[in-house]
Amino acid sequence: MITITTIDENNAKLKIEKGTPSITILLGIEMLIETLIKDKPDLTIDYLLEEIKRIYERDNKK
Fold first, then answer.
1. Ordered per-residue pLDDT tens for the chain, 62 residues
2. How far, in whole angstroms, is CA 40 from its chain's centroid?
3. 19 — alpha (psi -120 to 50), left (phi > 0) or beta?
4. Overall pTM > 0.85
5. CA-closest candidate to residue 28, choices 42, 39, 43, 13
6. From start to end of 1-62, where are the E strands?
7. What is the separation of C-alpha 32 from the centre of its chain, rounded to a whole number of angstroms?
8. Which ranges in the chain belong to alpha helices (H)?
9. Is residue 22 a contact partner of residue 10, using CB atoms and an 8 Å limit?
10. What is the Cα–Cα distance from 56 to 11, expressed in whole angstroms?
């Protein structure tokens, strides 16, 4: 199961329970991205993907 919680106007938390199928994870991410783009029309999918990549790389440094 995926839970998306709004923290404040600029932040949200995405919680993915262990054992969640990968297709469900991808659909949850898609819904989150669609919501972000609707709320801020100046955002682009390319910008969001770069931000996700940057966050992933930051959080997975060894």
1. 778 788 887 777 878 888 988 888 888 788 877 877 777 778 887 888 888 888 878 888 76
2. 15
3. left
4. no
5. 13
6. 2-8, 11-16
7. 5
8. 22-39, 45-59
9. no
10. 16
